[in-house]
Structure formats: structure tokens, C-alpha cells
Amino acid sequence: MERSGNGREFKVVYTIVERGQKKHWVRIGAAYTNRDGSLNVYLDAVPTNGQLQIRDYRPFDERGRSNGAELIAGPNGWAEAGSLDG
Questions:
Q1: CA 81, CA 11: separation in Å to the nearest integer?
Q2: Whole-number pLDDT of residue 86
Q3: Are 26 and 71 in contact (CB under 8 A)?
Q4: SS3 62
Q5: 79 Cβ contact partners less than 8 Å away, ≥ 6 residues apart
Q6: CB atoms within 10 A of CB 71
Q7: pLDDT more than 70, % of the chain
Q8: Is residue 11 helix, strand or coil?
Q9: Pairing verdict, β 10-19 and 53-56
Q10: DSSP string covering 54-85, please?
Q11: Is 86 in contact with 75 (CB distance < 8 Å)?
Q12: What is the separation of C-alpha 62 from the centre of its chain, rounded to a whole number of angstroms?
């Protein structure tokens, strides 16, 4: 599990957005595990479908494309992570 800048382990929070026939995983926040196993979830956006996926963090290059593309906000709307230039 990855550690944040303050040394705490964290998970990544996604929502799954369907666009046409494709499903896109949109990163919308982070979650931190407490000593008792519960989670503190911090969202940067609220999913319109009411569903969250909380997963262990894995760097983009280790994930590949098996889970669908991760979307991030770009200057021209949503774009796949890693596809934005500078």
C-alpha cells in the first residue's frame, strides 16, 4: 500500500462512469485506514451515481488498462490519465 506525504497509508477512491459502451474509472478522492480498520474518505468530487470504488493505490504504469481508463479533468474536458500533454 502506498503512503501519502504524511506517511499514512492510503487508498484511492473512484467512481465508474459509463460513456456509451465503455466504463471509465474516475479518480475522485482518497481514503485512509484507521487503526480500527474503518476508513476516512476525502472526496474532491461527488459521484452522480452514488457509487464509490475504494481500491489500494497502484501507480498508473503498474495498472495497465485492465480496469478501464482512469479519467482526469483536462483543459478540454475529461481525458485519460497519461494522455494530457504538459
A1: 18
A2: 40
A3: yes
A4: helix
A5: 71, 72, 73
A6: 21
A7: 59
A8: strand
A9: antiparallel
A10: EEE---HHHHTTTT-PEEEEETTEEEETT---
A11: no
A12: 14
**pLDDT value for 9:** 80
Q: What is the pLDDT of residues 58-81, one digit of tens each?
A: 776 666 555 555 565 555 555 665
Q: Cα(48)–Cα(72) distance, rounded to whole angstroms?
A: 16
User: What are the residue boundaries of the structural domains of the chain, listed by start?
Assistant: 10-80
Grid coordinates of 65: 488498462
Q: Which three cell numbers stand for residue 49?
A: 451515481
The label of the residue with cell 460513456 reads 19
Q: How far apart are CA 14 and CA 68, in angstroms?
A: 12
Q: What is the largest CA-CA distance in the chain?
A: 42
pLDDT for 59 equals 74
Q: What CA–CA distance (Å, rounded) separates 72 from 70? A: 7
For residue 41 the three cell numbers come to 474518505
